[in-house]
Design a protein that fits this description.
The chain has 308 residues and is an alpha/beta fold. The protein is built from 14 helices and 8 strands.
Length: 308
């Protein structure tokens, strides 16, 4: 579950600040003999909500990609260029503030080691996963299970060539800065980390054990997700999301449903002001039966797919 959620739900703050004390995995080998990534054209899904004087675009992102995929063009770039405001899941705080939040919410403060929380039959697999990454088997002992799961999901992907800095949020943020567009966050870093920290300990441990179980499939899982995203196939993403989250109703409610409802409320309020807005959030929030688009219905707002 965690691998798929990382690409579709979890905001960039987790990716940028995961395991700050851990050594970086070795870079992946160049994908071509010339050392340059092959260019792949992607056409991710884009929606629009509009009335007579307000237009809001909804764009779903994958928070980390391999180099070489082009997506910030065609309809997506046109929507971005037309917008006077950019809205992301959050605007990153400064590193010192982020580190303080990680310490407060991502690290255990009760003296219980991570391995002691895990079922005994999962402990060897965790130790092997860490040593395979070039880390000590005890590297995550001081972490809360949710934070360990996030790190354990991210680090193998980086080792396999996925680039946090190549994620759409980074590209959109840079383009907004270059164009002088104001950027707003739907949530704060403290809120995002708080969602994970609020999960019950059984839910966190299940989160981590699921992550451990899925490690052998990390590359194929991520590839399937990115392929669906690049093809603009939200139905495929929604199907995967629904299958994964059924096993953990608490995680689904906290990380997906509640946030989608909050964001739909934000969109409803923003529709009362004129202007054009470009919103970019994890693609999983714009797919499936609990999507932001579905949560807009009580407000009598309809999101229409943009064809490009």
């Amino acid at each position: 579950m965690q691998m798929k959620m990382l690409g579709k739900l979890i905001a960039p703050l987790i990716l940028l600040f995961a395991a700050p004390a851990c050594a970086q995995p070795a870079p992946a080998p160049s994908p071509t003999p010339a050392g340059k990534a092959a260019t792949v054209d992607a056409d991710p899904a884009l929606w629009v909500v509009k009335d007579k004087d307000t237009t809001i675009y909804l764009f779903g992102t994958i928070h980390l990609l391999r180099p070489g995929m082009t997506w910030f063009d065609d309809g997506v770039k046109k929507a971005f260029d037309q917008s006077g405001q950019v809205v992301l899941e959050l605007v990153m705080p400064d590193p010192a503030a982020m580190q303080a939040l990680i310490t407060a919410k991502g690290m255990a403060h009760d003296g219980i080691k991570l391995t002691e929380r895990l079922p005994k039959d999962k402990r060897p697999a965790l130790a092997k996963a860490l040593t395979d990454l070039g880390l000590p088997a005890t590297a995550f002992d001081a972490m809360e299970p949710w934070y360990a799961a996030t790190n354990l999901s991210l680090l193998p992907l980086i080792k396999k060539g996925y680039d946090v800095g190549n994620g759409p949020e980074q590209s959109i943020s840079k383009a907004a800065a270059a164009a002088g567009k104001p950027v707003k966050g739907l949530e704060t870093a403290e809120q995002q980390l708080g969602y994970f920290d609020s999960l019950s300990m059984p839910a966190q441990v299940a989160f981590l054990t699921n992550t451990i179980d899925e490690l052998p499939k990390v590359d194929s899982t991520m590839k399937a997700m990115v392929d669906s995203w690049a093809k603009g196939d939200p139905d495929a993403l929604g199907k995967t999301m629904n299958e994964d989250l059924q096993a953990s109703p608490e995680v689904k409610q906290v990380l997906l449903v509640n946030r989608n409802k909050n964001w739909a409320g934000w969109i409803n309020e923003r529709m009362k002001q004129p202007g054009v807005v470009f919103i970019a959030v994890g693609a999983g929030h714009l797919a499936g039966a609990d999507s932001v688009q579905v949560q807009l219905k009580p407000y009598r707002l309809k999101a229409r797919r943009v064809k490009y």
